[in-house]
Amino acid sequence: MTARTLSAAVSHxxxxxxxxxxxxxxxxxxxxxxxxxxxxxxxxxxxAIAIRRIREVDREFPSAHDAEFALQSALIAANQLITETVFxxxxxxxxxxxxxxxxxxxxxxxxxxxxDSRIYRMRDGELQQITSDHTFVQRLVDSGRITPEEAAVHPxxxxxxxxxxxxxxxxEVDTAVMDIQAGDRWLLCSDGLSSYLAxxxxxxxxxxxxxxxxxxxxxxxxxxxxxxxxxxxVVVMDVTDGDVVDDDEAATTVGSAAAPxxxxxxxxxxxxxxxxxxxxxxxxxxxxxxxxFEPESDQYFAELIAEDRRRRVRRRIGWTIALxxxxxxxVGAVFLGWRITQDHYYVGTDRGTVxxxxxxQQSIGPIALSDVYEDxxxxxxxxxxxxxxxxxxxxxxxxxxxARDIVDRLRKAAETGQDQAGTGGDGTPSSSPTPTPSDSPTxxxxxxxxxxxxGTPSPGAEAL
Length: 464
Prior knowledge:
Layout (H helix, E strand, L loop, with lengths): L2 E10 L9 E5 L3 E8 L5 H12 L9 H25 L7 E10 L2 E7 L3 E6 L2 E4 L6 H7 L5 H4 L7 E2 L3 E2 L8 E6 L5 E5 L1 H4 L4 H8 L5 H14 L6 E10 L10 E4 L36 E2 L4 H44 L3 E6 L2 E12 L2 E13 L5 H8 L2 E3 L2 H17 L42 H5 L1
Parallel strand pairs: 8-14
Antiparallel strand pairs: 1-12, 2-3, 2-13, 3-4, 4-5, 4-9, 5-10, 6-7, 6-11, 11-12, 15-16, 15-18, 16-17
Helix pairs in contact: 1-2
């Protein structure tokens, strides 16, 4: 049974752009996406010219190789039309467009590609990127200089090496012929989708049982949910069992190619809805950048490589300085804390004798924050029990002289055997005043004489 193609196309301006510079086409045999560049001055014009010219080859071909040649010729012709348009409208100088297109011929397809729009194939649950981006960062990835993850956030990720435009009369277009089979699902998209939606999300959507139209709507919605700062264009083609449908009315044109072609710069401004602008892991900046084109040449590529190398050196120097500064601050904080601890003293035991320690009774892992400052000849065994326990638990001192005073009291305690009686607040003996005898004792007052008995004369009476 002959494989049948079912398709859908949708294009959205995104949440930030003022106009749609993307164009897309889903026809009977031809499917294409174009992403214009050049800002308001002509990106929409370039993509519209390209799609309108390329869709002229939406017809049957004897073989896939014939379709491949026709598709390549159509892209070259579109490039010539863009050049002529710029010649007639100088304000459009510098405009260009990417193009990714394919033509179905029986059980094969012909592919033509230039720029950074992409073609994916979903087969047996596996998603594969068929085209390769013609960008500066892709060249760096292909040469092994950076990783794909670094390319996603590279400051020159928007630099294109190949596009259709007025800068190259004979642009190099990648072409290929591939087999298709029933169950394949092909995706053509602008970088407004591939740069802001992870491949796993794309794969999950394409692997669903939804039809082509539902899948395109879902992919665009997910991109909008992630902020969609750029234009988004999606074309999905399903290969199913059945007869090929030949209906010209089934062709769908979306984006700028679906609107009347004008050569005036757009002056409209679309308000930015800030709550929907999110930082996505695939791009560090929510604000989109206009694609910048530089012709592919060894000299220019070498200059960009040199600049990229200088950028990496500056970044490494910056990180090194920041790391050294952080380590310096950490070492300084540790040293300052250690110095503060060295202003403290306490009395404790060291190998069975009383000792004065400098520091605090703490440790950081295996690192002790104190050490023996001064040993004594006082044996802890000679101390009274209560005082000995206090020393083993350590006795804090306010200064070195205070620590030495504590040691003196402990020495007296060892000599006299005093324990809690007559001890200071730290458990060490404290001296108490001894009463001293007065120079002259005080005589007790004489008791008063008893009164004389009645009839008995007093001694004084005889004298009288």
